[in-house]
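Still learning folds. Look over my entry:

…
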Amino acid sequence: MKKNLFSKILFFSTLALFFVFEAILAEESTGFFTIPNPLTGINSLPDLLQRVADFIRNLALILMPLFITWGGLKIITAGGNAESVKKGREIIVWTIIGVIMALVASVIAGVIGELFPAPAEAGRYSYLLFISSVI
């Protein structure tokens, strides 16, 4: 019964989110459902790394409260079951480790962007020219 209720709630909330996003995108487009290009404005590899790292960081920060809540509920509803308490703790610990890794990846991408700035001439092989001039 609980599984069936959970699947219905998940289905209808996903459906509601689809309509919200579709309405937002419909304002910006010509009425058709379009997906904006997330890679606009990227001119170099460090820019791409930073954009991907920022996306992963933001996704981790959005999902973190959900997983910590899930782990906490698992502990609260354990009812003396040591296995459920252990599982809840593992969920919380691995969530925190994942968020820390996402934050560190974002910092590393920023450092890479600072160490290897985009060359002045933005061409297809400009990074190869830049690397060969450094070596």
